[in-house]
Amino acid sequence: MTVLRYNHAELDEDTAENLATGVTKLPYTVEARPPRDEDTPSKLQNLADGVLEYQTKYLGLKNTSPTIAYEIRRTTPGKLQFQYAAPTKRLERKIRTHLTNDTPHVELKEGVNGLPIREEDTVGGGLLTAGRTDWYPLKTSFDQPPVDSVVAALHRHAMQNTRFVIQILFRPVIGQPLRRYYWRKRAYQRIGHLRREKEKLWGSRPPTPREKKQADAIENKAGSPRFHVSIRLLIINAAEYTPSRVKEISGAFNTYENPETGQYLNATTVTPFRRSQILSFAQAVQRREFQGWSQKFQATKDELSALLSLPNRKQDNIQNAQP
After folding, report:
1. What are the DUF8128 domain coordinates in residue numbering (predicted)?
2. Angle 54-59-61 (CA atoms, 0-180°, nearest 5)?
3. Distance from chain centroid for Cα 27
């Protein structure tokens, strides 16, 4: 039977070496080790506020703001790491400063570049993006860091022969004034629809409390600074089980679903018609760049600070800070 789509690709020696050691757009990395016996905040608000830098060129038409990455890596079943990557040493220092402000007893070390890949491994993956139009916000109120759900899915006994890189890329929304104008215009059109009376067969009805809350949430998001966000799941050495691994990991992100707005993160497995496109997906993850495989969506600082959280969970494969 002819295979119409591929969900994984096997690596030869040269490709594996390139993915393991190739050049990245964000070479300055910071590994964050959460404290073992102290609580971490549910959101990294200082970090999301502090790395917001607007940069444009061509009279404000092109967005040249710096991209930053947050990665959760399981290189072996017994080693789970959390790291941030920046394009400049100056931004790396800012990340270190704001991580310490958010979590005073975090241990910061130099992170790693490249992917945990060897010859004859297979690679595949998936993408997470907003399930509804992205003017609806994700859940932002949590008692515990929402990343705890993701970490729990990556415990040492889960999917033992598989390595993972979960990558969240983000940069401020700026430039492209026409796109930003139409995004806001459509958002406010939706707000107007939610707040006005709805015509029925017999008369009309006022907006429901849920519709009013949705309108308020969209208005707050449309009027706030926002980031373009891309979430990628790189699955290594799962071969034909790659789609199953994508489902297992993406299910852990259900904690971000917002019951008031109905917003959630929808998973898509990378299944192109050519195996070479899977390799280009892996290369985009290795280079930490938006180009190509991204399915980006817009998120506020509150939404982003929840996505960037560090775990507050005792788990034997987490690399914790040394006392």
Report:
1. 4-322
2. 70
3. 18
SS3 state of residue 225 = coil
Q: Is 91 exposed, middle or buried (0-12, 13-18, 19+ CB in 10 A)?
A: buried
Give the closest residue to 125 by CA, choosing from 248, 32, 219, 23. Answer: 248
Pick from 295, 25, 64: which is nearest to 176 by CA? Answer: 64
DSSP string, 141-204: --SS-THHHHHHHT-TTSSTT-EEEEEEEEEE--S-HHHHHHHHHHHHHHHHHHHSPEE-SSSE
pTM tops 0.85: yes
CA dist 136 and 216 (Å) reads: 10
Residue 298 has pLDDT above 80, yes or no: yes
- CA 62 – CA 38 distance, rounded (Å): 43
- 93 CB-side CA count, 13 A: 3
Dist CA 195 CA 206 (whole Å): 8
- DSSP E strands, the chain: 9-10, 28-33, 56-57, 62-63, 68-76, 79-86, 107-110, 122-130, 163-172, 198-199, 204-205, 226-236, 265-269, 297-300
Supply 96's token pair: 């270190």
Q: How far apart are CA 225 and CA 219, in angstroms?
A: 12
Among left, alpha and beta (phi > 0; psi -120 to 50; other), residue 7 is alpha
- Give the dihedral of Cα atoms 169, 268, 151, 236; nearest 10 deg: -90
Asked whether the beta carbons of 264 and 157 are under 8 A apart, the reply is no
CB 204 within 8 A of CB 197: yes
Q: Phi/psi zone of residue 114: left (φ > 0), alpha (ψ -120 to 50 degrees), beta?
A: left
Tell me the per-residue pLDDT of 18-68, one tens digit each, with 9 for 90 and over: 999 999 999 999 999 999 889 999 999 999 999 999 999 998 899 999 999
Contact 39, 117 (CB under 8 A): no
